[in-house]
């Protein structure tokens, strides 16, 4: 945690194999998730020409183009549609019995469609934050650097990458090898942000 910094200057000649990025994402999926519905989706952008296009959508941020890859973290506000797949897998792996599996599937199918789209987007965004942080810590552990970017045109992004119905962009993570040290940053004192009762 202390070693990870937001790096904005990357070595453009450095590349990370697709298999290693897949492995990091797989490991990061151990993050907590509301009702275990795992509403996170990912678009990994490595093609130099596509990254150049993305840079224009992302307020001309240099790291979009010079990093090894940009991980677009997306949310699926129709996440409850995968409830049977998820809970049947939980049952198959021995995490819960058949009765609880059925109960969870039925409860999710009853409750989630009644929740507003905005509220489901908030759930997906929160879960995306959890998995994004895990991914960045894993990347640092493997010797890579990252920075999250919320400053991009989400409408243009969704249009350019033809995101499926129900899927929306949340954050971009540049991933690569630092070519210059990151700036340090201060944090508010604990007494300013915590209240014990």
From TrEMBL:
Domain of life per record: Bacteria
Protein name: Nitroreductase family protein
Keyword Manganese annotated: no
UniProt signal peptide: none
Name of one Pfam family that matches: Nitroreductase
Matching CDD domains: MhqN-like (cd02137)
Nitroreductase domain residues: 2-177
Keywords for the protein's UniProt record, in alphabetical order: Oxidoreductase
